[in-house]
Predict the 3D structure of the following.
Amino acid sequence: MHDPRLTPARGDLAAKYLEGTVKAARFVAGEKFEISEAIAPLRSGPSSDAELATQAFLGERVTVYDRNGEGFAWGQLNGDGYVGWLPDRALAKPGAAATHKVTAIRTFAFPGPSIKLPPVDTLVMGTTLAVVREQGAFAVTRQNWYLPRQHVGGLDEMAVDFVAVAERFVGTPYLWGGKSSLGIDCSGLVQVSLNAAGTGCPRDSDMQRDGLGHLIGLAESSPLQRGDLIFWSGHVAIARDAETIVHANAHHMATVIENTRDAIARIKAAGSEVLAIKRLT
């Protein structure tokens, strides 16, 4: 079975690269675009009130296979391969290749070399940018936006500890499908944090459970280590140490640090047992 979240295939249409592996009325090569908005919603259907599946950030590349003529495009993100519907307004022809990325959890883009100017936009961690020059305290992008240099790093700049990245999101409001400091869900927190440390990571918690690390025991004889991932049905948390976790969750409607035993007991009382604990190293 092909996962529809990662497979651009419908009964009437599918990506050309899937020809011979899926059934569809026709196959198309698709057209390359990049995201032109700071944060673009990728939804499960071609409607502004359809479920938010994930988000795409400025500069991210996407292959579009269908446009419905009513403001939505169906395509696949080039980063994590997620498939869904994006608003047409968020798409632009690809520009210069990215050279840098936002390393702060969020930053402002200014229209000139002064922090006193009204910002053009708010950019979030993981946003990729083509920086054309540096000017004083600023990195200047191809859009002629001025970003604080300390909030921008090269594409090869990696965080040492992905758990420390996740901890920076504490207090961020919970948002189903979100993956930024303006709103984030449990698997979004894991993906953004691991990506910041240079580790590729699928989008959803079940994909992460299946694709990351190796299983360790659930017994008391296997104490948690920093960076272990704890999985429930539809939820994931990151171990900070043997006793605490950091996770985005709908109970607190925020990213919080919590005692692990307390969280496991609360989630069990709500009807969900721990399914797996994965160690990445």
Residues 186-196 form the longest helix (11 residues). The first strand starts at residue 14 and ends at 15. The chain has four helices and 25 strands.
